[in-house]
Amino acid sequence: METATKENSLETSETLLNSDNYYSNESDWEYQSKTWFTKFINCEAEALAELKGDWEPNGSLTPLLVGNYLHSYFENSKAHQSFLDEHPEELFKYGNPEKGLKSDFIKANKMITALDEDEKFRALYQGNKEVPVEGELFGVKWKGKIDCLDLDRHIFLDLKTVDDIHKKHWSAEQHAYVSFAEVRGYDMQMAIYQELIKQTLGVECTPYIIAVSKQDIPDKAVLSIPDYLMDYRMKEINEKQPRIEAIKNGQEKPKRCEHCDYCRATKQLESITSIDNIEFY
């Protein structure tokens, strides 16, 4: 399976980020990102411990690898082959390509096929792939990496894998059901990327999410993001990031959420709680 690509000329960029240093610990300290911002919002103590290298999350890497498998395929054939070569143990049965892919990546191939055989997707997903961008949001340096950027059409696209595009998710903050895009903060991510593209490349681009489901017969959709949601998310960043920066700089002590893996692993019994006061998550 091969995907067509379109090259357009990126304007000269000031960014020092590249494929070698984008995911480095040094870069994570220097720049804020949607990933780390969300980690700090979820649990300040766990995020800081992970950033310092004192804690490594125990969650399965498979969902991340499935996403990377899909992204590398639509980046180009060389990137996809490099990904296969770098992760034989995770991708193949018994770590042997001759034994075939594990079930999660067989499903990933179905998702790839669902997109690759769609003419409108192939026409839409054209441009420069995996483009690093950086800038400042409210005085703090931020970074991002764009899945597909087409400056000629003034658009950028982000591939997302999801269990079910139409599944509803309860938001305790909004006291309502919301889409997967909102519950995962993808509206925030698109708002950040839109601003960083403008700062890095001087072009105002419209974001679109291309979602594909992990169902036996994959569903797919092209999703726009309302401006009011992106505006709301930028306000949220402005309100919350001063505390995050203070924690990273050692000026504030991180709060524990007391229900994540890190907090459970480091918990000390210091008080007695009535069963009437047990918290529900």
In short:
The protein has about 280 residues and is of the alpha+beta class.
Structure description:
Mean pLDDT is about 90; it is low at about 1-10. It contains 12 helices and 7 strands. The protein starts with about 25 loop residues before the first helix and ends in a 16-residue tail after the last helix. It is globular and about 60 Å long. The strands form 2 sheets. It has a 5-stranded mixed sheet with strand order 1-2-3-6-7, with helices on both faces. A two-stranded antiparallel sheet has the order 4-5. About 30% of the residues are buried. About 40% of the residues lie in helices and about 15% in strands. The chain is α+β, with helices and mostly antiparallel strands and about 280 residues long. Helix 2 (about 35-40) packs across helix 3 and helix 4 packs parallel to helix 7. The protein has helices at about 25-30, 35-40, 45-50, 60-75, 75-85, 90, 105-115, 120-125, 180-185, 185-200, 225-250, 260-265; strands at about 130-135, 140-150, 155-160, 170, 175-180, 205-215, 220-225. The chain has a domain at about 60-115.
Using brief descriptors, characterize the structure shown:
single chain; 281 residues; alpha+beta; five-stranded mixed beta sheet; 12 helices
